User: What shape does this take?
Amino acid sequence: MTELLTFPEVSELAELSERFERAPASAPVRWAWETFGDGVVLASSFQDCVLLDIAVRVAPEIEIVFLDTGFHFPETLEYVELVRRLYDLNLRVLRPEVGLDVLPCGSEGCCQVRKVEPLARALEGKQAWMTGLRRADASTRSDAPIIGLDPARGLIKVNPLATWSDRDVAGYTADHGLPVHPLSRRGYLSIGCAPTTQPPLDPGDPRSGRWAGEEKTECGLHL
Assistant: This one.
């Protein structure tokens, strides 16, 4: 298992990320697994299972992390269980250390205690984490590298699907016969917690249904 990369080596990460721009998504997954082994975890929101399908083909035993905020749609929890059984995932579910009545969903500070803090626990002792983040998701993610440094956490962050479009995701899902989140069939293009998620207000902006009417666009996991 490699030691943590330091800030002077960011240029090396940039070169590596550039190389993966023209490679299949399995390539950065394989690099992360071969480099870090069980020192890398994959954090999934289970909006779809494209990255999970790619990752378990490379490393069936890779640890998957799901952040159960306590406010997910029932359909999301059902989908998590469906996908877990389908792939026999090495799944770790992280929950907040506060009750549902403390900073309820949508309140200031909710995402910090229900997502950011549980993820921090999941990443303790790790060297890298992998996400399904895509540049097409939102303008705040438009420059996301495939391989980069997460300076806030001091870890390597791997985004194998960074270059993928919505059409790429839909095509892979159809070509491989992957199960689809039930809410996606009802017009939900970005799925988070139930109280703060609705179908997009702007069809051209998948995340416009998240925290609708607020300036907020990110929960804090990817800032």
